[in-house]
Amino acid sequence: MARSKTSTRAGAQHSGATFTTALIRSKARPQKGENELHALKLDWKRFVTDQTIDFIKNEVDAIREGGSELPVTANLMYDFDGLDYKKFKDVLDIVSWDNYPGWHKKRGICHSC
Hints:
By secondary structure, the chain is mostly helical.
């Protein structure tokens, strides 16, 4: 049996199999102004936030096992949309923020300019 060059969703090769994704890639053009899958972006943001919180929890556990009772703190970035900072309130005692001057940035790019 000759193999087709059309791939299936699972990556296997089957004769005559065609899937919608292959058709979309070859025929559809992205609409101007809309180039994101918002559900995937939200899912990724949730995943990264949860992974970061799990990482912090593991760090805190190791510190506590070492005998420290000091408050746990982390430097977070101003106006960073990649993580849901509200969820960090349950794992951090203190949140700090580093503010760097924008002396070498053009006006409008820097928040403090």
